[in-house]
Structures are given as C-alpha cells and as structure tokens.
Amino acid sequence: QVQLVESGGGSVQSGGSLRLSCAAPGYIYSSYCMAWFRQAPGKEREGVAAIDNDGSTSYADSVKGRFTISQDNAKNMMWLQINSLKPEDTATYYCAATLEGKSYGGFAHCGAVPLADYSYWGQGTQVTVSS
User: Fold this and answer.
1) Does the structure show a pLDDT above 90 at 65?
2) What average pLDDT score do residues 68-81 get?
3) How confident is the model at residue 114 (pLDDT cuts 50, 70, 90)?
4) Do 112 and 39 meet the contact criterion of CB atoms below 8 Å apart?
5) What angle (nearest 5°) sits at the alpha carbon of residue 97, between those of residues 95 and 102?
6) Nearest 5°: CA angle at 65, between 86 and 59?
7) How sure is the predictor about 6, in pLDDT bands with cuts at 50, 70 and 90?
8) 98 close to 31: Cβ distance less than 8 angstroms
9) DSSP states along 32-59
10) Is 77 helix (H, G, I), strand (E, B) or coil?
11) How many CB atoms lie within 10 A of CB 96?
C-alpha cells in the first residue's frame, strides 16, 4: 500500500509559522494532482492547497497569502509553508495525491478536484495554534 508520510506539525502561537513536509514514493510525483488537506475536530476534511504536475498552484480562500505549496520531484518531497497562523488553522493536515497516470485536465486546477479523487493519503500531522 502506498504511504505518504507527513511531518513538521507542532504547537505554535498565533502568528507563528510551520513548514509541513510530505515524502512519497517517486512514481507518485507523476500524479496529476498533489494536495494538502486538513481536518479539524468535528469538521469535514477540506482542501487547503493543491499543485498540478505543471507546477500550477491553487489555494483555499481562507489560506491565500499565508500558505505556500511546493514540491521537488527530484527529492520526492512536497511542502506546505504556513505563515501567520491563526487558531482556526488548528487541524490535522494530510498530504494526498491522485492516481498516477489519470488526467484531471477537465478541471480548472487541482484545487477543484474532489477529495474522493485523491487515491493516496498520509497519516496526518497535527498543527495546533494557540491565541
């Protein structure tokens, strides 16, 4: 079973920063979309940032200007830089990828691809922001 592995979570004060990392098998980086999702207690999992295989990025409105998604295919790594953290950013953060070889060109960007279309997931890393 393919396993993505997140790291970098932690507890920070409001206004702080964290850099989340996602390590995956090399062939995953041929996936059309890779993304970061988050899930707060009692809430549904939501997408926060996505990156297409051509490097185009998209963000949820709630994180625009504060979060930056990036990847390095040569190192089989993806990152999420999160700045100006707010208490409402508290959640478990997951990295995910769509099935390799499957195109999502019909969507404007990978941020529009439904959660259910992401086939590979990590175990999550906790981010806790205190006020």
Assistant:
1) yes
2) 89
3) very high
4) no
5) 170
6) 95
7) very high
8) yes
9) SEEEEEEE-TTS--EEEEEEETTS-EEE
10) strand
11) 27
